[in-house]
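INPUT
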Amino acid sequence: MAPKLEIVHEKSKRYDWGFDYARPDPKFPTRYIIPPKGKDPFRVMMRGYAAMETEKDNRVYGGLDSNVRYRNANVAEPRFMEAMKFAIPAFTDAEYQAVTGAGFLIASVKNQELRQGFAGQMLDEVRHTQLEVALRKYYLKNYHDPAGFDIGQIALGNHPIGTLARASFQPFNTGDPIEVSMCLNVVLETAYTNPLVVALPQVAMLNGDHAMPTTFLSIQSDESRHMANGYGTLMCVVQEPDNVPFLQESLERHFWHQHQSMDTLVGVVSEYYSVHRPWAYRDVWEEWVVDDFVGSYMSRLGSFGLRPPDRLAEVARFVEDMHHSVAIGLAAMWPLNFWRIDPMVAADYEWFESHYPGWTARYGGLWDAYRAMSDPTSGRVLMQELPALPPFCQVCHVPCVMPRIDAPETRIFDYEGKRYAVCSEGCHWIFHLNPKIYTGCANWWERFDGMDLADVVLALGYVRPDGKTLMGQPHLNPDRMWTIDDIRRLEYEVKDPLKA
Amino acid sequence: MVTILPFGETIDVEPNESVLAAILRQGRFVKYGCKHGGCGTCRAEAVEGDYRLGDNTSFSLTDDDRARGIVLLCSTFPDGDGLVIDVSQTMDDLSEEQYLAGQRVQQYLATVDRLDTLTHDIRWLGLRLDEPPDIAFAAGQYIEVGVPGAVDQWRSYSMANPPSESGRVDLIVKLIPGGRFSAALRERLAIGDRLRLRGPLGSFGTRLSHRPMVMVAGGSGKAPILAMLKDLAATGNRRAVTFFYGARTDRDLFLLAELDELVSDNPWLTFIPALSEPQGNNGPWHGEVGLVTEVLARRLPSTKGMEAYLCGPPGMVDAVIDVLNASGCKERHIYFDRFVPSG
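OUTPUT
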């Protein structure tokens, strides 16, 4: 008879050793005091865990096969499928950064039980990366307009707002190990995976895409392990009172940053790239982020002196509007996208007005203009009509149209002789916590300052195999596609808004 | 009904209610994540009894899991009353204290150290704890007081003092004609008398969030609200709170000076007392007039995005819930404690 899992797990923890004749420098230093106690409530053993994950993988690949047979990729709403061109690479970026994040934590946290948990997570994150690449391959091979799926990861890294993913997920494996866990396990995975991988698949299902939910619900089934890793790590370090101010600062920083990117990404995809909407994103956020993460999870940490993020009310204010602003921002600069954006129509206006009163007055005119300019014969694109291009936030990389495109709260400032823009007070605060993190990358417009828009599109590689038709289009009509010649005729020169 | 092991507690489950929803509704805590069968955080073992498992668990439970009776509490619906769930293996770091969510019920002996007449039918009963000398509770919770001279008769009253005052409990008691405890309080109880207590109990209390709060109370329902307001003040609250208190005439109003002081010290707090019968008072009434529901609807025509905390007679609580629903407050953000009279 095989020994009980609990016994094997206890035994495995003893296979740990250290130096007694020297104190090695930590590979990744931490400012936290890490007590030697810590629990992995899952008691994972790799052999059994890998078998379980294999079963999950098999189900997903079987599901993708049946989607091929039923030709579901072309049954799904094209409006939604276009979003997958940028959303899936963004998720894959998160998974990949998390693979290295789990490795980072294994190397940093000298606690054998927590390490076991992170080892399980590393296996999960590799699995998720592979599943998402398989999903993208399925879309590429089966969707009628694959342009953009083929270069998704590179295209995302070059896209003006796509760098949001890198900015958001790099902290999974950079900086202080405890803050890595705070960002990855606590804020992203505990607060935000439910909107990401439970709510978004609901949207996919309603819009006819069954492959995305098949993949992401399998991914979601691993998240409880990752949340447990975060909770285990947090409960371990929060016992030490000196750690609490650091944890509070870390929570504040990552909660604001992850909100900027996740609430933008999920809000935009679920409301602007769907025909059928199961809910308003703000309500999803209220339930999972406020009621569950803040109201339940955080309330159990209060006795240790840890309080909810101070900017929670500010986040709530942003969630009302920010995705509307970014959605029209993406539409306005559509030639710089590698996917197509369907114009909003009367039924959409009605839905938005009923769920976000005042929407029509604030955004309806902009969508009217976008729709009016969607045919190449219009000879105009919406970005030409803007008084100036918005800079991109140096911290979170969203365009500085936050929270409302008509009332942005942009802050422009100089640091060590260079000009920067941030989208909000929260990002301004984050920038000054550690400016070196954020000063290394150029502002997106700066890279292309003075270039003709057509040359920017060519430099980005966002053209189809014929070498002239743009990947990005301001509609879903395959017969009225814009070409690079149409863009060149605009004679639109990109100007860096931060240039003196 | 479902029994939760290893804690050995049996709790009610409504028809079509999941075991997780029933646990959380009754102020208990187990680990959970998505509540939709996706994440697997609320894994447990069904060791006895019948149940139905939602089909949204296809990824989170393997065939082997199902064969071993592993379930997800969020997707488990009892079939009959005999379901026994064991979380000891799947949530082995969940302590009884965490499960009880701070509701560790104990017996206490206490000495009466304050007896005040607040109105013609409401008394303040202050008790200093003797054994054990401290109590840990959350603002909004209640305690049971043993009726003097009776072996197993208890009356429930909410604490009016904040948890920081852990060496005592202060109660606001409405006198019920013919009530046994009411009679003792009116006629016999004196400073220095000893009373038996057991608690704390209940899950009423403020939730962490960013939302502005509306609080509505009537009668002795002011007690838990007072504790909650004092606790919010002590913990650096910044959320706006509007507290409506409904009474019939000005002889039913009490602790106004204490509330005025709270308002002047805490700019986030607005206090709106309302009288339904302002005629025949001791002096002119300059405050709101009408039933508390009417005043609430008038002063807060929209409660969208707010959290509500209601405490008082069941009729008042139900009527206020209707007003809140009509003015946009989400049902899941309305928390209440119905005070059922027991003398």
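end of record. The radius of gyration of chain A is 23 Å.
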